[in-house]
Amino acid sequence: MDRKEFLTKSGLAGGTLLFAKFPELNPVSKKVRFGMITDLHHDIMHDSIDRLSAFIKEMNTDRPDFIIQGGDFCVPKMGNSALMEVWNKFNGPKYHVIGNHDTDGGYTREQVVDFWSAKGKYYSFDLNGFHFVVLDGNEHNQSADRPKGYARYISSVQLDWLKKDLNDTALPTVVFCHQGLDNDSGGLENGTLLRYTMEQANQKSGQQKVVLVISGHHHQDYYNHINDIHYVQINSASYSWLGEEYQESRYTEEVDKAHPYIKYTAPYKEPIWAMIELEGKGKITIKGKKTVFVGSSPEKLGVKMEGYIYPIVPHISDRKLG
After folding, report:
1. What is the pTM of this model?
2. How far apart are CA 115 and CA 14, in angstroms?
3. Distance (Å, rounded) from C-alpha 24 to C-alpha 27?
4. Which residue, 170, 169, 187, is CA-closest to 178?
5. Which of 45, 122, 169, 267 is within CB 3.0–4.6 Å of 136 for a Cys-Cys bond?
């Protein structure tokens, strides 16, 4: 659960205006709007059902075209059925991205897909003139010198599927992956290859086909613009991981006993998520939630912030891209 990042910083503060030229061969007259929550970590947080309930309640009020969770949601055990009941209260399409912690305890990704009633480990769908791709970044690099820890790789089989999927659509495309494609610490091992694959798809089509890539996993709030593609990191709904060195008891003794990993985190007082809207003329609007830390901030605890590159913050920035 190492959350340290080494990122190529090209991001700008929320509200900065950037440009993404959507394909002109298939002009989009409609908008698409979706709510995204990620890294809820039901198996760590004591109040994750309340956090998800708040998200679902607001989504049913705001009525986006769909919702999606970006991974590290819950392991596929029957004891987590109550969380799925809350998720399924959304009155509309629901999509899932598999995270590295969703298979903790020896579960398989196939079991996760079945438990969540997800469309697959990786898949794509169209809505309102836009194409959406969900990747599974939890495959194993079979080389002997692969990094230790959780799998964070896209296999050649999935890569070939992605190439064909991008070739078969002429619609402006959004890609979701739990792990970031735009960093070298904890993101996809072959993130550079994935970025190049999308850039080649854009070049081959003669237009800006892949316009936006969204990730979770890193429990941070950052943005990069690389070769005309926007890369947005959506912060965790629950916390930032600090580790044993900076542990602090922030809740009751009973909570700490039942959820022993909480004291290694800097939890957010309220849940945070994002509402994302795409328009046909290249406009991308992200509206995020803001809150405060429970207990001491990472700075007060003496966390070495340079190891994270970007600040550890309890919010998701508002952004206007294009």
Report:
1. 0.90
2. 36
3. 5
4. 187
5. 122
Pairing of strands 210-215, 229-233: parallel
**Each residue of 288-299: pLDDT tens digit?**
999 999 999 999
Residue 225, H or E segment? strand 222-226
Q: Are the C-beta atoms of 172 and 23 separated by less than 8 Å? A: yes
Measured CA to CA, the distance from residue 88 to residue 107 in angstroms comes to 22
N-term to C-term CA, the chain: 34
Nearest 5°: the CA angle 43, 49, 56 is 130
C-alpha 63, offset from chain centre: 20
- Written as six digits, the tokens of 287 are 């509206």
Give the whole-angstrom CA distance, residue 121 versus residue 115.
12
| Contact by Cβ (8 Å): 26, 171 | yes
Q: Could you give the CA distance from residue 130 to residue 271 in angstroms, rounded to a whole number?
A: 28
Share of the chain above pLDDT 90, in %: 81
The closest of 170, 179, 180 to 202, measured between CA atoms, is: 170
From 185, 161, 182, 150, select the one nearest 72 (Cα to Cα).
150
